[in-house]
């Protein structure tokens, strides 16, 4: 006998930036499938809540303020008060599974292969997660289990804002979460000079600390240096204004995809088929110069292959990709 359709549905996707962004198409599909009467809630960590707040498809946002066990248990009690009948765990980790259990939802759906004992918290661990497919496509399988139709990813207009696109702005995401995903600063300097020589405005983007310091090293008089100066909502609006955004496999690059901006993805560490930028409605170019030495299908998250993989991408190749996307 098929399970009844949910009426109070919780999605537990706590972090990180890229993972939260990849969940946005699923949220829209859940709203489409469940209709306006579905109570659709999202549990997320405080750092990423600004991207979720204001989402027109979400009925309620529950924010986990701290990472401590005490805070997590207290958060679970808060979730239980909401009387969810179904919880989805697309995160697949210990904490996300624990919160799904603590929510009191009698049906808890998650990934078939997961980490940190996550499967122990689930009642229905059937979402295929190890095959070579994009994360956005894998998450769409939650719709299949619920009997909802899948939706093709659309532009997240609530994040994009109303400002017009500046075709001459080229977003440059300086830095990444790990050193092997970082394009060398000398490459950025060469590219920025070439962009300015063509009348384009490099918009430097990145987080505070090391990324902001790196951006300061490559910035020139013709740059708009916003690295370390934008919070997540402002970052989303900024990448939405750009004509093109360039970056490695990072959260800000996928945020640009979500708001419909064409992107140039610098790859070589991760598999573009799994986490590439081609999942959105706008065109994307992937540059990968180590496909022979490190076949993309053999790459795994958190297991680096060639340390200088991104350094092998020349500035000329990136410039050519930018020009193709702008024409």
Automatic annotation (TrEMBL):
Protein name, per record: Lipopolysaccharide heptosyltransferase I
Source organism of the structure: Armatimonas rosea
PANTHER family tied to this protein: TETRAACYLDISACCHARIDE 4'-KINASE-RELATED
Transmembrane segments: none
Keywords (A to Z) from UniProt: Glycosyltransferase, Transferase
Any matching Pfam family: Glyco_transf_9
GO cellular-component term (any): cytosol
GO molecular function, a single term: ADP-heptose-lipopolysaccharide heptosyltransferase activity
Highest taxon listed in the record's lineage: Bacteria
SUPFAM superfamilies reported for this sequence: UDP-Glycosyltransferase/glycogen phosphorylase
GO process terms (BP): lipopolysaccharide core region biosynthetic process
InterPro entries, A to Z: Glyco_trans_9 (IPR002201), LPS_LOS_Heptosyltrfase (IPR051199)
